[in-house]
Design goal:
5 helices; globular
Length: about 120
Amino acid sequence: MIRARAIHRTEYLALTLVLVGAAIAAKDQLSWTFWLFLLAPDLFGLLPASLMGRAPARGYLPPRGVWLYNVWHTFTPPLLIGVMLALLVPFGSPWPLLGWLIHISADRFLGFGLRGDDGGQAVF
């Protein structure tokens, strides 16, 4: 399991570096929305989820808030939004979503994964 975790973190480190490299390459096109979306998973996922009841232990989220945290910390929503925007509004900016993806990949690299039903870190 330790070896799998090391491989998992190495993959997310590589993804984080690629995404940060893309952000550096596009630094002249980034706006305040990039920075908002970089913090969005914690502002709109972690903070409200922690207010949805009593946490069973320190470092856990209240079980009622786990779904909200997990929605904001998965790759599916930003990728779906990006595809929909590319199809519907081809001249829109993808850079805010890049901030969201950087946040998720950096969290995974640092060891913060999705939450389990009990509010603790889920084991992959």
